[in-house]
Amino acid sequence: MSATLPPSRLRRRLAALVALPLLALTACGYGSQAQEDPSTQQVAAGAKKIDGLDSVKIGYFGNLTHGTALVGARKGFFQEALGGTRAKYQIFNAGPSEIEALNSGAIDIGWIGPSPSINGYTQSGGKSLRIVGGSAAGGVKLVVNPNKISSLKDVKGRRIATPQLGNTQDVALLNWAAEQGWKVDAQSGKGDVSVVRTDNKVTPDAFKSGSIDGAWVPEPTASKLVAEGGKVLLDESTLWPDNTFVITNIIVSQSFLKEHPKAVDAVLKASVDTNKWIKAHPDAAKKAANDQLAVVSGKALPANVLDPAWKSIQFTDDPLASTLDAQARHAVKAGLLKNPKLDGIYDLTLLDKVLKAAGESPVDDAGLGVK
Question: Which residues form the signal peptide (predicted)?
Answer without folding.
Answer: 1-34
